Amino acid sequence: MKTAIIYFSKTGAAAECARELYRLIPEATLVNLAIDTCDIAKFDNIILGGGIRAGMIPSKLKKYVSANELEIQKKNIGIFVCCSDYPHSVDYIEKNFPPVIVKKAVCCAGFGAKMNADEMKGIDRFVAKVAAKKIKKAGGEMPSINYAKIAEFAAKFK
Ligand SMILES: Cc1cc2nc3c(=O)[nH]c(=O)nc-3n(C[C@H](O)[C@H](O)[C@H](O)COP(=O)(O)O)c2cc1C
Q1: What pLDDT, in 10s, does the model give residues 92-133?
Q2: Nearest C-alpha neighbor of 57 from the set 14, 16, 28
Q3: Are 96 and 60 in contact (CB under 8 A)?
């Protein structure tokens, strides 16, 4: 089974998750929508992923999915998001991906998030700093990538 892991990552979290899936899934190909294109016809499994900003998946990923919706529907589908509001991961997926694709998906999951302000610029850095302050004040933990969840997800595409 051939798997395409198609992702867009603004600050690196979804890219890190995509690389981990690539490491765990045999015959996988990484497709970074910032630089690559992908001929879906060559693949049996299609994994789609990206980071959430203001409740939305990256526009490049959204456009890619709507342009290829019919072809994607014919495959085994997996969808992941990276977001700091971990309990709402599946809600974000349901709001951002076409219902028919979500319904057909073998697996939909949140893989957690990374919010390291020092690695960010501009508005992202500002939002990450504000979020970090709030979390610290509330005595919570900074979001992190959930590698166990990635392994569980990857097992469905082996
Ligand atoms: C400007 C900005 C807006 C964000 N908006 C949300 C949001 O609406 N919901 C959420 O759960 N996480 C939000 N996050 C957290 C990101 O989803 C998280 O940092 C994620 O790891 C980003 O993935 P990426 O690095 O692949 O872009 C936001 C982060 C930034 C910097």
Answers
A1: 999 999 999 999 999 999 999 998 888 889 999 999 999 989
A2: 14
A3: no
What are the pLDDT digits (tens) for 36-63? 999 999 999 999 999 999 999 999 999 9
CA–centroid distance, 84 to ligand 1, in Å, is 6
Q: Which residues form ligand 1's pocket by a CB distance below 6 Å?
A: 9-14, 51-55, 82-85, 113-115, 123-124, 127-128
Nearest CA to ligand 1 atom 1: 124
Cβ contacts of 12 within 8 Å, gap of 6 or more: 114, 119
For tokens 């497709």, the residue is: 31
Asked if 145 and 108 count as a contact pair (C-beta separation under 8 A), the reply is no
Atom 27 of ligand 1 has which residue's CA nearest to it?
10
* Residue 107 in tokens: 């697996």
d(CA 72, CA 49): 14
Ligand 1 atom nearest residue 51's Cα: 23
Q: Which domains does the chain have, with CATH numbers?
A: 3-116+143-155 (3.40.50.360)
For the CA of 9, the closest atom of ligand 1 is 26
